Amino acid sequence: MSTSPCKDFNFHLQLTNTLPNSLPKQTNLLLVYENRTMDVHLAAPIIDLEKQERITISHLNYLYSIPKRHLYLSIPCNMQCTTIPRQSRIMYISSLTTTKKISLGFICEVPSLNNHLRHLILFDDGTAKYTVENDLIYLCLCQDFERNSRSIESKLIRENFEKLLLNKYLNKQKFHIHNYVRVKKFDDKYHNARTIDVDCSIIKLKFYERQAQTEIWMHQHSLLIDDTIIAPIEIASPVILQNKRKYDEISTSKLRIII
């Protein structure tokens, strides 16, 4: 008995480092649009996936012609035995959160001894993350990097992806713990931040000026981080002072526990 290309795509990926080029009719897919997902299925078999720009799908007995970049395989990758190629377009669901929040991005690093056998994902909002066990990663039917990057609104983030995924960051500054930097994030303006952790290719940044999302991980060589290391931030506003005191208190208590 032959095996369905959809059910066996992890094995196909292992052998060829590519998506299966054919999918049978009624293959279940995920339609992803504006951070929402919808269960759909193929209305007709696909013989040559790479040449298709639009895919006809069925949902609630209605037919729709959808750009391929919005469709993802409904079966997550088998992370224990599959290496997802660099530049792959993926949808990610963290195993560490109770809500199934989806994030779209690209694979920047494949598992190696240098990164402790993890995939590194660059997300569309400029943040980055190494995968952990039981994370879910779904492959997009469109693996044309240029076409996928066009759907990202921010020109700077598009340029950032191109630099990081094509290894064009050789002259970028390397940051260390306790460096103060300026980061272009949130409202597309620069914000002062402090490097509080380093994990292989990514750094954790602490923003004292913000009350929401005060810590994020980003790639060391992200274009969103200004190359200049700045002097320690002058604590001026009550919000900055309050956030810094909270962080310093937490850091001190952790230090006491370690000692």
Q: Your description of this structure?
A:
The protein is an alpha+beta fold and 259 residues long. It folds into three domains: 9-73, SH3 type barrels (Roll); 89-165, no CATH class; 180-258, Roll (SH3 type barrels), CATH 2.30.30. 17% of the residues lie in helices and 31% in strands. The chain has four helices and 14 strands. It has helices spanning 9-16, 145-149, 155-165, 238-258; strands at residues 28-33, 36-42, 54-59, 62-67, 71-73, 89-93, 102-109, 120-123, 128-130, 136-139, 180-185, 189-199, 202-206, 215-219. The strands form three sheets. A five-stranded antiparallel sheet has the order 4-3-2-1-5, with no helix packed on it. Strands 9-8-7-6-10 form a five-stranded antiparallel sheet, with helices on one face. The chain has a four-stranded antiparallel sheet with strand order 11-12-13-14, with no helix packed on it. A hairpin with an 8-residue loop joins strand 6 (89-93) and strand 7. The radius of gyration is 21 Å and the shape is elongated.
